[in-house]
Amino acid sequence: MVSITPSFPPTKANKAKHSRQRKKNALAGPRYARPVLAALCEITMIKPIETRYKGYRFRSRLEARWAVFFDHLGFDWEYEYEGFQIDGGAPYLPDFLLKDDGSFPDVWVEVKPQKPMKPKESKRYYQVGKSLANSEEHTGFLVTMGDPLEANAFLFGSFGGEKKLGPLVESDFINFFLAKSKKGHEDIYNAARAARSARFEHGESG
Predict the structure, then answer these.
(1) What is the separation of C-alpha 121 from the centre of its chain, rounded to a whole number of angstroms?
(2) Which residues 6+ apart lie within 8 Å of 55 measured at CB?
(3) What is the pLDDT of residue 125?
(4) How many CB atoms within 10 Å of residue 145?
């Protein structure tokens, strides 16, 4: 036997209650919309893969590839060696330090993915490079964008009394590493290829 509950005309209090609930639902949006949107945001925010190499835990696979490149060229490097206070008091921590080998000055290196920089970010690195070039007689600041095989780069610094502030064209980029490593063009190319093909998934050293 089916039980039927009698229906009564709605009271003013019930009408007001339902009206408030409808407004609340309208403000909240469709049911489950917020959790779904939050999940989509999490999916679309791609994070760099932390990568271990030579006892270091790099913030991205790209940084680890540059470490492989530096090793193949025989550079003495440190990862996140020292931080600075740039103009305006903002803290800054470069990714790498390529140490002075007695014939070539210290060079700080910032590694970025190969995509256009935001104006604020570009201005920040220019300030860092300019501050380093003005504060120390023999030092450099290299900003790379992309992996070693096809990176764009900017070099800031003072080398032999001559200051460099600006982008490196392809020949300048290669010449920088030729001068630093004292190796040949083929060595630079082979180091860049080794960096790109390095595998880190199973604890390989690159």
Answers:
(1) 11
(2) none
(3) 84
(4) 18
Q: Where are the domains of the chain?
A: 51-197
The third-level CATH classification (topology) of the domain covering 51-197 is Trna Endonuclease; Chain: A, domain 1 (3.40.1350)
The first and second tokens of residue 20, run together, are: 């408030």
Q: By percentage, how much of the chain surpasses pLDDT 70?
A: 66
Q: Which residues contact 65 (CB under 8 A, 6 or more apart)?
A: 147, 148, 195, 196, 198, 206
With CA atoms as reference, report the closest residue to 137 among 154, 110, 157, 166.
157
pLDDT at 102: 82
Partnered with residue 158 across adjacent β-strands are: 139, 163
For residue 18, give both structure tokens: 């339902």
